[in-house]
Amino acid sequence: MMVEMVPAGELATRRTLAASTPWEAVLAAYLDGATDSPSTRRAYGRAVRDALTALEVTTLAELTGAELARYRAAVTASTSHAPASQALALAGLRSFLKWAGTMGAHGMSADVVTLALRTPTSRVRKPYNVLAEPEVGAILRAATNDRDRALLAIMLGAGLRVSEVTGLDVSDLREDGDGATALYVRQGKGRKDRTVPIHPEVASMIRRYLASTGRRLGGSGPLFRAHDRAAAKLHRGRLTARAAGDVVRRAAERAGIDAKAVSPHALRHTYAIRALRNGSSLVSVAKLLGHASVTTTQRYVDHLETAELLTQVPHLPVEAA
Prior knowledge:
Layout: H1 8-16, H2 23-33, H3 38-55, H4 65-77, H5 83-102, H6 110-116, H7 133-141, H8 146-158, H9 162-166, E1 173-175, E2 181-185, E3 194-198, H10 200-212, H11 230-233, H12 241-254, H13 264-277, H14 282-289, H15 294-308
Antiparallel strand pairs: 1-2, 2-3
Helix pairs in contact: 2-3, 3-5, 4-6, 7-8, 8-10, 8-13, 13-15, 14-15
C-alpha cells in the first residue's frame, strides 16, 4: 500500500481548513504559503478579495460553478479593466480556489474551477512602446550624473526589470578571468536567479559611477544609492523603484522624447527588441529577460513583424505631406 507523503506545513493546513472555514482565513493561509512572489501575493490577494466580496459568500463551500461562471462573465464584460487585468483577476481566483479545494475548504473539482474561470480569449495586443535608435543615445546623454547614466545603461543594456535593477548590490557586478562582465540578478520574478552579460560600455558606466562614490568592484551594499537627504535619516540607502522610474522619465523629457510614455519597462522592451534585431534567438532573449516561458518572449517577435510591415506600406504623395 502506497502512503501519501505530505509536507508537515501542508498537513497542518489541511487539518485547520474545512468547508466551514471563513474565506478570509482560507485566503490568509493561501497567501502565507502558496506563492513566494510578493507581487503575486498582492495581486492575487486583491483579486480574491474583490471576487468573494462581489459574490457575497461567507465560506467557499457556498460557491458553485454556475456562480463562478457568472462572475467571469461580469469580469470579461467590464469596460473599466484592460484584458490583462481581467485575465489576472480570473487567474488569481482560479489559483486560490484550486489550492483551497485541495486543502478541503470546498468541494468543487479543479476541472469545474478551471472551466468556470477560464482565461478570456486573447485579443490583439497593442505594440510595445520602445525607443528608436537615436532616442537610445539621446536618453543616455540626457543623464545629469554618473548614477543616472549607469542606471539607464543597465536598463537599456541588460533589460532588467526596475525591481531587479534597484535590488542589485555592488557585489552583483562580476568579472570572469577573461575580463567579461555580467550582472548577477538575485531572486528575480518567480524567485529565480540569473546571470546577464553586459557589454564593456555598460560596465564602464557602472565603474565610473562606483568610482565617483568612492567604491569599487567586490564591495558591499546597494549598487544604486538614493540621493535625497531623507535617505540618510531613514537609513534607506538603496534607490527605490519609484525613484528609478522618476530618473527615466526626467531623462526622457530632457532628451526631447515627449511623444512617448517612457518608463523603465519601455527600456526593457527596447532591450528585447534590439536583441532580436541584432540576431539573438528567441530562447536566448527569454533567458536574458528571465521569462519562464518563450511564449511571453514571442510577443516581441510579433511586435517586430508588425513594425516590418511598414516597409510594405506606400508613402503619401510628396505634395500631400
